[in-house]
Amino acid sequence: MNAVDVATVRALTAARETEGAVLLLDVRTPAEFESAHIDGSVNVPLDRLEAYLPQLAGAMTGRSVLVCQSGGRARTAQDKLTAAGLRGTAVMTGGLNAWITSGAPVNRGRRRWSLERQVRLVAGLLVLGSVTLSLWWAPALFVTAFVGAGLGYAGASDNCMMGMLLARLPYNRAGAGDPAAALARACRR
């Protein structure tokens, strides 16, 4: 990734003040977006990105910045958009976490657990449960090994399969707006 592919909070804030129309594409789950998001950002969840490629092509005519919680999902989205022929995107370094830490304003809604927190809870419960069960049934330790391998893969590849599965749960779909309508509004800006 080169310097053109990354946007810092300061650079994004300055670009929004000087250029005005910067498309902020938030690729977190609708529930995470509902909890907190940057004003004017459009929520198109990473797992639904391909479904909105035609609308994205129309909306991404100027500067486009991809945002997630910390940057990992935004980089994955950037790879998918580039593979689909949509170039010229930037990933906000540090994601929404960096935005909030900088003191920049956010729109807050109903508080929801982040996908990362959900993964930690489920992985922890699976390990605890399988270790406890292994006291009576030794093969249960394979669940612990499977979770450990999955977490290792997620750390090495920055691609969490458990997170992708959890993103599909109704809890994480709640509060979903209409990405097509939001992208249409972005095209008119």
From TrEMBL:
Keywords: Membrane, Transmembrane, Transmembrane helix. The chain crosses the membrane at residues 119-138. Gene3D superfamilies: 6.10.140.1340, Rhodanese-like domain. Residues 18-108 form the Rhodanese domain. The keyword Hydrolase does not apply. InterPro entries: Rhodanese-like_dom, Rhodanese-like_dom_sf, YgaP-like_TM. This is Rhodanese-like domain-containing protein. It comes from Streptosporangium jomthongense.
